[in-house]
Design goal:
Layout (H helix, E strand, L loop, with lengths): L2 E3 L10 H5 L5 E3 L4 E3 L9 H5 L5 E3 L11 H11 L15 H4 L7 H4 L8
Bound molecules: iron/sulfur cluster (2 copies).
Length: about 120
């Protein structure tokens, strides 16, 4: 079980959740952040701090919602090679030490950018 970051984070990335995660398991892509499904301890602190309600406990996800696709996508972020990398990230053991990954999954990269108002 883990919390999952959905589409509302894309192009927002204010990182409030990162500051509140006690085990540093929220990793930064290019346009979205990703919670490590194996490192997350289900404390819920990140969900309470997100200003756009992008974070959901996986048990509460509606299987029909677009955000449900981001659960499998978070696993893909860590366990499949990302563009520009020859091997998966797997369990990096901390987002601060790893630093920004700088790339996204194909699912997130394909989401149209929001036009600035
Ligand atoms: S639920 Fe807790 S451990 Fe999991 S990502 Fe959020 S703040 Fe970190
Ligand atoms: S707090 Fe919400 S919008 Fe901000 S980076 Fe985290 S998931 Fe994304």
């Amino acid at each position: 079980m883990a919390y999952v970051i959905g589409e509302a984070c894309v192009d927002v990335m204010d990182r409030s959740c990162v500051d509140d995660c006690p085990i540093d398991c929220i990793y930064t892509g290019e346009r979205k952040l990703y919670i490590h499904p194996e490192e997350c301890i289900d404390c819920g602190a990140c969900a309470r701090s997100c200003p756009v309600d992008a974070i959901t406990w996986d048990r509460d996800l509606d299987p029909a919602s677009p955000d449900s696709t981001h659960l499998a996508d978070a696993t893909a972020f860590f366990y499949q090679p990302l563009p520009g990398r020859s091997s998966p990230l797997r369990e990096p053991g901390g987002a601060a030490d790893l630093g920004p990954v700088g790339t996204d999954t194909a699912l997130v990269a394909a989401i149209p950018r929001q036009e600035a108002e």
